[in-house]
Each structure stands twice: as C-alpha cells, then as structure tokens.
Design goal:
It contains twelve helices and two strands; from the N terminus they run H-H-H-H-H-H-H-H-H-H-E-E-H-H. The chain is mostly helical and 269 residues long.
Length: 269
C-alpha cells in the first residue's frame, strides 16, 4: 500500500500552468469557431497557407541538410575544443535575439548599404526566398539542438563497428547513423516546420508580403495576414484566420508527437 500522498502536492501546479497555457487557446477557438468556414474558404487564407507552408518546408529541409552533419560533429567531438563550444554558442544565439532584430539584420544584409556587395543581389525582400531565410534563422537553432540530443543518446557501438569495417566517419554518418534515426529526423523536420509557420517578428520586416509571379502576387504569410486583418478589418476577420492557423499548428504538434512516440524532447548545448 502506497502511504506517500505527497505526489498530490504537484497537482495544483500542473492544473495552474495548464490553465495559463491552454485557456487562451481554448477561448480563441471557441470565439473563432463561427468564422472558421469563411477563413478556410478565403482566397487570402488559402494562398497565405500555401506560401507559409512552402517556405517552412524549404527552410525545414535546409535545416536538416546543414544541421545534421553539424549536430553530429558537435555530438561526437569532431570539432576541436574549445572551438566546439564557440560554434555551439554562436549557433544558438538566434534563440536569444529578438526576431525583429533578425528580420532587420537580414534586410540590411541585402540592402544597398550592405558591406558584402555580392549578397546585395540576393532576392530576399518580399520574396519566398526571404521567407525561407527568416524561417531558417529562427528554426535552425532549435532543430540542431533537438538533433544533437538524438545523437547524444545514440549508442555509438554501431558506429565503431562501421569504422572497423572500413567505413569513413562520413560513411558511418550516412550509412549507419541516419538510417538508425530516421524517425527522429522526421520529427525534427516537423519541429522546424512548426516553428517556422509561427514566425512573425522577422518576416513582418523582411517579407511583409511575398511577390513571386506567377505563383504568388502580394500574398501575406499567415501571421502577417492575421495582423493585417486585425489592423485593417478588425477582430472578427482576424479571429477566423487565427483560429484556422491554430488548427493547422495543432495538427503539426500532433504529428510530431505521433511520429516521435511522445518522446519529443529539447535541450540546448
């Protein structure tokens, strides 16, 4: 018989934080329910969803292509000390920088006053590529941190076997590590995807709308569309767009949990 009743002392904390986090979301869905149909059938919302998901997908794929080898190198000590700590700190720095500053820095980077002439020609302002750039900067640190944790928890014995069989370190990474962590990598992709579609601060400066004819012609990404609708047309229209966007975000969260088996975790370096 369990005589320890102290575990019940944790219940008020769990209930309180759950209410603080979930109550605003529940109220938003409740108030915006009657506006959902008009939001999901709105051309502005449909195109906004397309441009947001496309930009997020490209950015998430880029975080995996560049982040996988980087996270593996840091996890396995392939970067000399203390350079590994310096690189780790620099890669996580966007997490502590206000995202309006990130948007402004990207804008300056490709502006006529940029100190790097060759980058001035990059088409980032109000284009899908600017959206991808902003999404990448804000989501890559989270993705790399999550992937590194996966590699840290991976038993290296299989890698040692691969090395003894004549595989190079890169060969072990490609032929042993990646196949063993496919499920976690898909989860990390969705994590970057979900983080990207929620971004507002940087894209409102760099890509307030996306102009890439013939596919996109002055299309607002979803967060910007919600803000624009609220500022210009008022709360009812913004409620519909916000509720519909929230449903998409919840679907992504559920997918992440299903794929990861409810074991999604994240830490910094």
């Amino acid at each position: 018989m369990d005589l320890d009743n102290s575990r019940h002392a944790f219940t008020p904390f769990i209930v309180l934080i759950s209410l603080m986090l979930l109550l605003p979301i529940a109220v938003l869905l409740y108030e915006g329910f009657n506006h959902l149909l008009s939001a999901f059938t709105s051309t502005l919302f449909i195109y906004g969803t397309l441009v947001t998901l496309l930009g997020a997908s490209i950015a998430a794929a880029l975080t995996l292509i560049l982040g996988l080898p980087t996270a593996y190198a840091i996890s396995r000590g392939l970067i000399p000390k203390p350079l590994d700590s310096v690189i780790g700190g620099l890669l996580t720095s966007p997490l502590t920088i206000p995202h309006t500053i990130i948007g402004l820095s990207l804008l300056i980077l490709v502006s006529p006053i940029s100190p790097i002439p060759i980058i001035r020609k990059l088409p980032l302002v109000d284009t899908i590529w600017g959206l991808v750039a902003a999404y990448f900067v804000v989501s890559a640190p989270i993705t790399i941190g999550a992937i590194r944790q996966v590699f840290d928890n991976l038993d290296p014995v299989y890698e040692y076997v691969g090395l003894t069989l004549g595989l190079s370190q890169w060969g072990v990474f490609m032929r042993v590590v990646i196949p063993m962590t496919r499920r976690e990598l898909v989860s990390s992709f969705l994590l970057a995807w979900g983080r990207s579609i929620s971004e507002f601060g940087s894209i409102v400066i760099l890509t307030y709308y996306v102009v890439n004819p013939p596919l996109f012609n002055y299309v607002y990404p979803l967060p910007t569309l919600i803000w624009y609708s609220y500022e210009v047309y008022g709360l009812p229209l913004a409620l519909g767009y916000a509720s519909a966007s929230l449903i998409i975000s919840i679907i992504i969260i559920v997918l992440i949990e299903l794929i990861s088996g409810g074991t999604t975790r994240f830490r910094l370096w």
